[in-house]
Amino acid sequence: MNLVIQSVAPLSADHHKTLVALARGSHAAVIDANAIRIADAKLAQRADVEAYCYTHQLDYAFVEAGRQLRDFGLVTMDMDSTLITIECIDEIADFCGLKAEVAAITEAAMRGEIRDFNESLTRRVALLKGLDASALERVYDERLQFSPGAERMLAGAKQAGLKTLLVSGGFTFFTAKLKARLGLDFTRANTLEIIDGKLTGNVSGEIVNADVKARTLRETCATLGIEPSRAIAIGDGSNDLKMMAEAGLSVAFRAKPVVREAASVSFNFVGLDGLLRVL
Questions:
Q1: Which of 84, 94, 96, 173 is most buried by a 10 A CB count?
Q2: Cα dihedral sign, 40-46-48-52
Q3: Domains 1-66 and 74-221 share a fold
Q4: Is 254 left (phi over 0), alpha (psi -120 to 50) or beta?
Q5: Residue of 122, 143, 140, 157 lying closest to 234 (CA atoms)
Q6: Which GO molecular function entries does the Swiss-Prot or TrEMBL record give (predicted)?
Q7: Is the full-model pTM beyond 0.85?
């Protein structure tokens, strides 16, 4: 295995030597100032590597030698708290004075403490009933920001020939804008019902839950004529787990503990462009 170590700040030579020894690797090659690749790393040393990296705020990834980004055909991303820094529904709720209440439900759902995503979404959306739909535009214009490294990661993926899928338990209002802005190939999300310029408190059509996210990844792979093993899936919450399990490589980004434990790779400190260094 190769072991890729990444840092937000430049990696010192002391880190290089210590990590090669911890991983029982043969040598370290510099990827850039903030990352190294250790050849012949021993997966059995993972616990020691993880402890060291956690202490020094480094991200690590064990990856098969020779695996490259162009080996994949699709990168699939969650939206809220993954591609972007906010949870859109929490910010929408702020415009009717209910952010704390809605955010508490969101957090519990993402941690996996609320098993039924459909129920959690229905409860949250119901609290938005009567809100002027202009609040959605304000959230997009005033609060939506990309996660660190998001645009660079997408540019690198496209350059390597990968298609892009944004699949979200959030809302089509935002995924449609991001599709146009970022040149994404595919999107899937929930549709907020709006009548006479007001949110009704309902979602139209099928709710995009964990099963639908996984199905969307499979269907998109079928459309592209590739196996799901050639997909990369990036997420942060428990409703991303089934989608991530379908993919050949799963990435937990600033994720909840249950997601970090299940993912192939976790980025707790570096940006989404850390994917480009891993592969």
A1: 84
A2: positive
A3: no
A4: left
A5: 157
A6: hydrolase activity
A7: yes
Going through 143-264 in order, the beta strands assigned E by DSSP cover 163-171, 186-195, 198-204, 231-235, 249-253
Active site positions, annotated: 78, 80
How far from the centroid of its chain's Cα atoms is residue 85's Cα? 10
Question: What is the pLDDT, as a whole number, of residue 112?
Answer: 84
Strand partners, 198: 132, 195
Tokens of 184: 């994404």
Supply angle C-alpha 16, 17, 18, rounded to 5: 95
Which residue, chain included where needed, has tokens 């006479």?
196
Query: What are the distances in angstroms from CA 103 to CA 87, 107, 278?
Result: 8, 6, 33
Q: Which CATH number fits domain 74-221: 3.40.50.1000, 2.40.50.1020, 3.40.50.300, 2.60.34.10?
A: 3.40.50.1000
- Bridge pairing between strands 74-77 and 163-171: parallel
Locate the domains of the chain by residue range: 1-66, 74-221
**Angstrom distance (rounded) from CA 163 to CA 159:** 10
Encode pLDDT of 84-133 as tens digits: 999 999 999 999 999 999 999 998 888 888 878 999 999 999 999 999 99
User: Cα separation of 89 and 179, whole Å?
Assistant: 19
Architecture of domain 1-66: 2-Layer Sandwich (3.30)
